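[job 0412] stage=complex_fold ligand=zinc ion status=START
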Amino acid sequence: MMKLYYDLHLHSCLSPCGDNDMTPNNIVNMSLLKELDVIALSDHNSAENIEAVRKVAAGTSLLVIPAIEVCTMEEVHILCLFYEFEACLKFGRYLYDLLPDIQNQPAIFGDQLIMDENDEITGHLDKLLINAANLSIDRLLKLLPDYGGFAIPAHVDKSSYSIIANLGFIPEDYHFPCIEVKNPPYECGFAGRVITDSDAHYLEHISERERFLEVPEKSIRAVIDTLKGLASIQ
Ligand SMILES: [Zn+2]
Ligand SMILES: [Zn+2]
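[job 0412] stage=complex_fold status=DONE, emitting structure tokens
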């Protein structure tokens, strides 16, 4: 087993609330500077910058997990990690179609920039990404396995956009093996694994080398399977 220091919840300049300095190169370089082993890029309701981050990190020691922070119709944020980049991108595009047709107003909400691996702006998304998608938690959990995706209720201790704030509890029927808590320790009677990420929207907020996962190997599959509680039986 090996220890991987992680931060599995980061936003890029694609998220309107994400700073424009959260470019693919800055995210990867800051994560390396902080001596993290694995990060997940998890923009709101889209994965359009994951490919650039993957390319920047290629050849470095940093493992990048493709991810999306989905805002469900219950206005609950669910951190979704994927085994494959392609499937994550595909799910992100499906999700984008489920967003309401409300345009982003960059002056109010911030830019939604798509960048390449050289931090060149190659486009932007028009629909406001922080809105709730027309997708229930129930439906999300049914769809994710088709895309090799794994759901983690995000920042459950936050007073808004969290499963506990909005539903009042974590329904057992959903069988979440893992939840994310922003400010541990947090007592909610959850018996599974609890992780803590930065949810950084600014470079300086990316986690320090503080929290680790014990995994059998340094791979996307090993990290996700460990969070699922499966890694030990492989
Ligand atoms: Zn969130
Ligand atoms: Zn977030």
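DSSP finds seven helices and ten strands in the chain.
[job 0412] exit 0
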